[in-house]
Amino acid sequence: MSENCSGSCSSCSSDCESRKGPQIVRNANNGKVKKVIAVVSGKGGVGKSLVTSMLAVKANKEGKKAAILDADITGPSIPKSFGLTERVTCNEDGTVMYPETSKKGIKVMSLNLLMEKETDPVIWRGPVIAGVVKQFWEDVDWDETDCMFVDCPPGTGDVPLTVFQSMPIDGIIIVTSPQDLVSMIVEKAINMAKLMNIPVLGIVENMSYFKCPDCGNIHYIYGKSKIDEVAAANDIKTVAKLPMDAKVAELVDSGKAEELDVTALDEIFNAIMG
């Protein structure tokens, strides 16, 4: 990296190490992870971390050894969803970290499990953040894991690129919401996946509708869904729609993600497991 580096590769013509894509690494610590799924979104606030948590819970309920790698370094929320507050430990020489484990056995690694306070901000440039994500894959002892879900930050920037290039990603799940911008935003994520030669296994539309608990009527708060058309146009065969539900927020906010009803993701999970 040049001493005059601004951290923005898009406006730079230098041929430095920061511009070179990392190589996929499987070492003694992560070689037993059988399947790695990246959960992505074109923009923030659509429930990507919720879907990541739900998929891990679903895998756990199906008898799979599940894990979550929280790659959303500047906005980590996975530990809170599972009620995890203890800091992670490492081996004697500090070269290997051990993930925290939820009450029902889901392994989790997140920057918030390394911070003194979970509210401390992370004010780092992209290359540093990307390096931490690589460490979470390479330097954490994930042991026997059937299915790992990587909670990526929103967008198509440094961290998703690092995840796609440095981990053996088996497929991508895209999370979105039912708004007019959905087609453009989802297609950005799909096109990135195509460029990286990684299959999109399904799309989850969060906050798709609201079902009135009194009368049972369905209301489309953000407008009627267009996700089926978007999926069909991009030859994506598996779509799930999650309703707006106050109970979901209550469970996640209280660290009880493992009590969530995850049946709405049955088809997505089947697509993941093949």
Walk me through this protein's architecture.
The protein is of the alpha/beta class and 274 residues long. It has a single domain (21-273), classed as 3-Layer(aba) Sandwich (Rossmann fold), CATH 3.40.50.300. It has helices at residues 48-61, 78-81, 126-138, 158-166, 182-195, 227-233, 246-253, 266-273; strands at 36-41, 66-70, 89-90, 97-98, 100-101, 107-109, 147-151, 171-176, 200-205, 210-211, 218-219, 239-241. The strands form three sheets. Strands 5-6-2-7-1-8-9-12 form an eight-stranded mixed beta sheet, with helices on both faces. It has a two-stranded antiparallel sheet with strand order 3-4. α5 links the parallel β8 and β9 (200-205). α3 (126-138) packs parallel to α4. The longest helix has 14 residues, at 48-61. The chain is globular and about 60 Å long. It starts with 35 loop residues before the first strand and ends with a helix.
